[in-house]
Amino acid sequence: MDIICPHCKKCTRTENNPFRPFCSERCKLIDLGTWAEEGYSVPVPPDSVDEEDLDVDKRI
To answer: Which of 60 and 55 is assigned the larger pLDDT?
Structure first.
């Protein structure tokens, strides 16, 4: 089965690909780095976030 690499958009095969859904280890590591640097985020509806949860000083 052919898929498109989410990072470089190159067409790649899924069979015997240890890096799937990426085409290579490089694309996989770049994506991991983007997550680690908070380049991606999961959207949260504004009304589901409590202001007190965001205040780190009050929790410590």
So the answer is: 55
Question: What's the mean pLDDT in 28-52?
Answer: 84
3-state secondary structure of 24: coil
Q: Domain count for the chain, please give it.
A: 1
Within 10 angstroms of residue 23's Cβ, the number of other Cβ atoms is 21
Contacts from 2-7 at CB under 8 Å and sequence distance 24+?
6/31, 7/31
Inter-residue contact 53 to 36 (CB < 8 Å): no
**For position 7, which CATH number holds?**
3.30.50.10
- List pLDDT tens digits, range 1-36: 999 999 999 999 989 999 999 999 999 999 999 999
Say if residues 58 and 51 touch (Cβ distance below 8 Å). no
